[in-house]
Every structure is written in C-alpha cells, then in structure tokens.
Design brief:
By secondary structure, the protein is mainly alpha-helical. It has 3 helices and 2 strands.
C-alpha cells in the first residue's frame, strides 16, 4: 500500500511540475522574434515598453521579467 501511495505522490508532483514548465515554455514561444520590428509590434500589443535581445532572438518589453508579467495578463 505504501508503494502505491508513494507512486501517487510522485505522479502528483510530476503533474504540477509539468503545469509550471508548460507555462514557461509557452511564454517563450509567444514572446520571441527574429526581427526587432516584430518584437516592437508585440510590445505595443502587450502594452509594455521597449524590447530586449535574448541570445539570437528579440523579445518585447524592457526585460524578460516584465515580459512574463505582461504575458500572464
């Protein structure tokens, strides 16, 4: 019985972990652009100011923290 309970707790943990991961990865697919112009357009749509570069891609808002806040609205 304890093995079943332990497996159930582990499955619940994985479920909540996947919810958090999906939210993070989804925000990145909606928030990265190849051109500065596209990032600026998205920034205006979201209502934030500025753009920033993350590796080889452009992202709306002045930083990634602000972008995540606006994507959750």
């Amino acid at each position: 019985m304890s093995i079943i309970l332990r497996n159930f707790k582990f499955l619940i943990f994985l479920f909540f972990l996947s919810l958090n991961f999906n939210s993070y990865s989804l925000s990145h697919t909606r928030g990265t652009f190849l051109s500065e112009e596209d990032a600026e357009k998205r920034s205006l749509e979201l209502g934030c100011e500025g753009i920033h570069k993350n590796q080889e891609r452009w992202m709306p808002c002045k930083n990634e923290k602000e972008l995540h806040i606006y994507l959750r609205k």
